[in-house]
Design goal:
BirA Bifunctional Protein, domain 2, 7-stranded mixed sheet, flat, binds phenylalanine
Length: 483
């Protein structure tokens, strides 16, 4: 490239196509890479300019070929003796007739008694022609196009698109001009290490090209995991690495395991219909009578635990109501009931359901990162350390805990992570109360936590709207980092 540039006037600026032609290259990446190398050695200077170009989008290309919708309807109108709405609906499909009438109204077409009437036909035709001419003039530099037209078409779907492109110009520096042609030698530099190369001895003396991660390259557009899936995999591998095993269980659960087992009183507001999705089918989920009697004793008067319970009267019918689990603690508690005396470390990353109105920070379906540690001597310090270790491995070294309240843990805490200088609440944790552990025959302390996955995803991906995670926005998905 330097040799080719030296053959011309030293003041000349070179664009990409000039470089490609002069070097007899076809690959842009080669030219950009060579330019970069020369720039690093101070032999050329590079000017980069970002250009915004306005181009036709899919609908725009069709409009250019078949005419804009308003043009086609206008042509149809002029060919009718009386252009009626009914006729329009017959001549055009529903998805065109509706928006088409809207467009014509803006142009001054009125509807009187089901008949379409044009205001000033010449003016209407002129506006339509002007729009078609605009589309015909694309692609064009965003700075050169008619801004009123740009505004107009930007508000219509898929007619035009705005694309940013970087244009580079290279120029020899005095040092670059001064390099003597005799000093320029062509050498073979190896960029790919292949099995064939390794079979011989040549690689021993070969020169290898350093891998420069700062060189601009096109992003390969291949299939990839959804960022949520990738995040779940990462969380999984962190817990597996920390010696946990994974628990997977069903969404459909009984109120008994979801709430009663966790000493959530039967009149707790979170149990109301407006907060929890109860199911009509099955009408009821059978639970073990002994277990329900144990919960009944705990809830009414504290059973054998020394607790006073919640008082009132406990209903086993309420326990057997089916629902969509509102937290994954419903699964860890059942795991403990099945293995009350074996020390364990168990986690799950799974979906839960709450009747929430959808907004920037709420979804009715989301995921929790749940975990328990049961072992002799387990204590609060160990719980805090485990959570800090988890978040540190996720890349958030600053974690703090604050006192909180859950009916099933004591002490209870809230976990907060520092992000962009602010403390954000990511979940709850604590040590299960005797009212929870004793009826199930659990003898060692149980550390437990439940954290929001989507909350964490918003941090990791820098989002301020949780809904972005689940709308199929391909462009956004393609541009997400590899987690
Ligand atoms: N289940 C709680 C929630 O849904 C979180 C939690 C789990 C708190 C375990 C304490 C212990 O918010």
């Amino acid at each position: 490239m330097l040799r080719a540039m030296q053959l011309s006037d030293a003041e000349r600026t070179w664009d990409l196509s000039a470089i490609l032609a002069a070097c007899e290259w076809t690959d842009q990446a080669v030219a950009v890479g060579a330019g970069h190398g020369l720039q690093n050695h101070g032999l050329v200077s590079v000017q980069e300019e970002t250009i915004r170009q306005i181009r036709l989008d899919v609908e725009g290309e069709q409009a250019l070929e078949n005419g804009l919708l308003e043009h086609r309807i206008w042509t149809w109108m002029n060919a009718q003796e009386t252009a009626t709405m009914q006729g329009l609906q017959q001549a055009f499909e529903r998805h065109e007739a509706g928006p088409g009438v809207g467009l014509l109204k803006q142009l001054g077409v009125g509807i009187e008694g089901g008949v379409l009437k044009a205001g000033d036909p010449d003016e209407i035709a002129a506006v339509i022609d002007h729009r078609a001419a605009f589309l015909g003039s694309l692609p064009a530099d965003a700075n050169d196009v008619d801004s009123a037209m740009l505004d107009h078409f930007s508000s219509r779907k898929n007619l035009i698109q705005s694309v940013e492109r970087t244009e580079r110009h290279w120029m020899l520096t005095p040092e670059g001009s001064a390099v003597s042609a005799d000093d320029l030698q062509e050498t073979l530099v190896i960029t790919d290490l292949t099995p064939e190369l390794l079979q011989g001895d040549d690689w021993k003396t070969a020169e290898f090209r350093a891998f420069d991660v700062s060189v601009e390259a096109t992003t390969p557009r291949t299939g990839r995991s959804h960022p949520m899936q990738a995040l779940i995999e990462r969380i999984r591998s962190i817990f597996l690495e920390m010696g946990f095993s994974e628990l997977v269980d069903d969404y459909v659960q009984s109120a008994g395991w979801n709430m009663d087992a966790l000493f959530i009183p039967q009149d707790h507001p979170a149990r109301e219909m407006q907060d929890t999705f109860y199911l009509d089918q099955p009408t009821s989920i059978d639970l073990d009578e002994d277990v329900m009697q144990a919960w009944k004793a705990i809830h009414e008067h504290g059973g054998e635990t020394g607790s006073t319970g919640w008082g009132g009267s406990y209903s086993t019918e309420v326990s057997q109501r089916p629902l969509l689990r509102t937290h994954t603690t419903v699964n860890t508690i059942q795991y403990l009931a099945d293995h009350p005396t074996e020390a364990c470390r168990v986690f799950s990353v799974d979906r839960v359901f709450r009747k929430e109105a959808i907004d920037r920070t709420h979804l009715p379906e989301f995921h929790q990162i749940e975990g328990i540690i049961m072992e002799e001597g387990a204590n609060l310090q160990m719980l805090v350390t485990t959570l800090k270790t988890f978040y540190a491995k996720m890349g958030y070294p600053e974690v703090r805990v604050r006192p909180a309240y859950f009916p099933y843990t004591e002490p209870s805490l809230e976990i907060e992570v520092k992000w962009r200088g602010k403390w954000l609440e990511l979940g709850g944790a604590g040590i299960f109360r005797p009212e929870v552990t004793e009826p199930l025959g659990i003898t060692s302390p149980v550390l437990a936590w439940g954290m929001g996955l989507e909350r964490l995803a918003m941090l990791v991906l820098g989002l301020d709207d949780i809904r972005q995670l689940y709308i199929s926005d391909l462009e956004w998905l393609r541009n997400q980092p590899i987690l």
